[in-house]
């Protein structure tokens, strides 16, 4: 009998090699995410009334879309980490979800001492937002300092912040009602039930444009504050770790320096206009108000 072949061919070898190749591929895919010690998917949420940075997708209402989501996706692309942006309720609810660790990140928040107790902030901010006083057209009043808001009634969104300093002043000195929907706040303004609405400049006019009342409101020229809009990571998220924070800090700096947020604004403003529909007054009227932490 002749000598056995030097290289014995095993019929199972191709299958084994294929299995090994698949395992290596999967390992390589997950290794990228593992290299910064995080999950391969981040669940995020935020303020659903914040166009063009964030709003509820009309075609899929369980999702949030906008500049803030797309910019985060771009930031995470080198690590093959996916972003799932979920609608969990109004802005106040989104913050609770982050506090409890049921959501990994918020896609846009101002810095406050309270929020820093349960979230880490990614720096730099994606953009700086001017916060202004909106009034009914023709009802503007002089305002050179926050004190000029005393003896007037204002509205804003539940748990919205306009910077630590203004928040503390408003709690001590001002009469501000917090409502569930910013659209409801503007409706109250137009009906004469409040003197002013505090909100971000661009978002206020964006909502007014598509809801048909942009021409009925104006803003006072002096912003009450200008605050950076930041991504945050919940400290209770299973995906929270310093490697992720350091990576996002670096990536966001690169993208901000390249003006990436600004380059996305017009694209998503166009999409917001396309998706937005006329305000359902019956829905707005059914919204319930919550007693404000600012009320005297």
UniProtKB/TrEMBL annotation:
InterPro entries: Solute-binding_3/MltF_N. Residues 1-33 form the signal peptide. This is ABC-type amino acid transport/signal transduction systems, periplasmic component/domain. Belongs to the bacterial solute-binding protein 3 family. It holds the Pfam family SBP_bac_3. The keyword Signal applies. It comes from Hahella chejuensis (strain KCTC 2396). Residues 43-269 form the Solute-binding protein family 3/N-terminal domain.
